[in-house]
Amino acid sequence: MHLDTGSCQSPTSATADALSAPTRPESLSCSFTLPATPRSPGIARAATRMVLRAHDLAEVTDAVVQVVGELAACACLFSPRTELYVSLRYRYDALRVTLYDGHPPHTDARLGAICVLSRRVSLRVLDGVVRDCRGDWGIGGDREPCGGTRMWAVLPRAGACGYLREGSICE
Questions:
Q1: Alpha helices in the chain (DSSP H)
Q2: pTM for the complete prediction?
Q3: How many angstroms separate the CA atoms of 171 and 155, rounded?
Q4: Is the dihedral angle over the CA atoms 32, 64, 67, 142 positive or is it negative?
Q5: Which of 63, 52, 59, 128 is nearest to 90 (CA)?
Q6: How far apart are CA 75 and CA 72, in angstroms?
Q7: Does residue 139 contact residue 150 with C-beta atoms inside 8 Å?
Q8: Cα(95)–Cα(86) distance, rounded to whole angstroms?
Q9: pLDDT: which is higher, 160 or 82
Q10: What pLDDT, on the 0 to 100 scale, is given for residue 2?
Q11: Phi-psi domain of 107 (left: phi exceeds 0; alpha: psi -120 through 50; beta: other)
């Protein structure tokens, strides 16, 4: 058996410079599962701050953390299950936030439409943030394999960088 230690060094054997060097934004691909409890949106926001800082994306923190918190709070409100799944990706100069919760699709189309409308109403703040960042968001689309609801937002880096800042431009 051969163990390749060059590609993923142990924190105890890596140099201090290697440990503190931020990774490139393009390498951001992070997912985590949280319990569907009232504390989870705060945990998701804290984890997102750390992930963005580690991937040299600190300038988009305000917008992305707000989006993650809003999606997580909505998921906790609507999910009858015990867990929610958060995914952060950076591709093509945009941050993609995806959140799955355990709320199953409704068999009655009218109930399904009312449910989606209720989610949209609860995501008014998210809508404003995404619009300010010139991004896009939605509910639905790809389903979780075990059923459930998918909510997502795409924030272009340039727009997210300027969120809450007048005249700010990302490099």
A1: 16-20, 40-54, 61-78, 109-122, 124-132, 157-161
A2: 0.79
A3: 16
A4: negative
A5: 52
A6: 5
A7: yes
A8: 13
A9: 160
A10: 44
A11: alpha
Distance from C-alpha of 42 to C-alpha of 88, rounded to nearest angstrom: 16
Q: Which 3 state secondary structure label does DSSP give 43?
A: helix
Q: Count CA atoms within 13 Å of residue 130 on its CB side.
A: 20
Residue 79 CA to its chain's centroid (Å): 17
Q: Tokens 């945009």 belong to which residue? A: 94
Is 149:142 a contact under the CB 8 Å cutoff? no
**What does the block give as tokens for 26?**
């393009």
64/132 Cα distance (integer angstroms): 12
Helix, strand, or coil (residue 15): coil
What integer is the mean pLDDT of 126-130? 91
What is the rounded distance in angstroms from the CA atom of residue 165 to the CA atom of residue 158? 12
